[in-house]
Amino acid sequence: xxxxxxxxxNDAKFQIRQGSTLVWLFVMxxxxxxxxxxxxxxxxxxxxxxxxxxxxxxxxxxxFLQDQISLRLRESDFEPQWxxxxxxxxGEDPPRRTLTFxxxxxxxxxxxxxxxxxxxxxxxALSRNFEIIRIQRSLYTALADIVVxxxxxxxxxxxxxxxxxxxxxxxxxxxxxxxxQRQEIPSGFxxxxxxxxxMFTLLVLxxxxxxxxxxxxxxxxxxRLASAPMSRTEVVSGKWGGRMVLAxxxxxxxxxxxxxxxxxNWGPDLAMVVVILAAWAGFCASAGLLIGSVASTEAQAGGxxxxxxxxxxxxxxxxxxxxxxxxxxxxxxxxxxTGWAMDALHKLISFQSGAASALPQLAIIxxxxxxxxxxxxxxxxxx
Length: 383
What we know:
With 383 residues, the chain is mostly helical. The chain folds into 2 domains: 2-42 and 185-379, no CATH class; 53-167, no CATH class. 63% of the residues lie in helices and 6% in strands. The protein is built from 14 helices and 4 strands. It has a 4-stranded mixed sheet with strand order 2-1-3-4. The longest helix has 30 residues, at 189-218. It is elongated.
């Protein structure tokens, strides 16, 4: 055991002294936390988080229907602000969302004529279609209100008729609630930080961990260990331990930065979250050893590690919520290591389903770690 700890500690010290390792270990993850978390913070904004999306409604003389349309827009999580015309001040950004109606909105509709409406948004591709759906739902609902209110009155449609309609009880009601125990759907940093943490732990251990093993083999350091009174298993265990120290540093720093700087909510089962991350670190350490054992050069180890880490991160749900991907990708995630880790963290953090809910994924990760470790020991060579 003393030999294993000696190798592990010296390996960890050597890797941490490398400038590139320090950058990818401690500097890049927080930068990615901030950048990707900021970009994705609007994915669920105004959907169920209670944050209404600002909307500029341009209409000249909209009349009494303004209140009814505003009511339906607010129900779809928009915050409408009505203006007669759109004026963009030089040097200022134009509104993010605008809904434009033709002039004399109410009079035209009461007269039975069509009214042109156009919606423009600068939302990302992922949010644009959903905003359009919400706008259409609001306008169709307002139109249905107008039709029903007009049918119920013997005189010309007025604001009073719409108030009477709004006061009537609705026969059909749709009860919408979030899945799981959580009352607020995570987005932004709370969705990004676990994914980036899983990705960078894999990336660092596959690239730095694999390249270092190749370098030691080329420089003859492993041949020296071969002459020492220790078995192949002890040598590999020491190398594995050194990479676990590296992973532990990254996970600890990421947990601290996520909690203190980005106010990350890890859910009520933080202990199980740490267990999952520890198991994931063990898998990544074993995978790094396997990469270093099969690669012939440092460039091969670095390239293969970077390619594998990025591909697994993208397909496993580290870059974006797996729920927004095509069905085939959601199915594929169930067979990927990153998918197992993200699924477990999703259950613990997003849905707060309890520590027991992540036990199947934990067992799979541990089993995969044992398998990859056995392969690494089998492929490990001193020269």
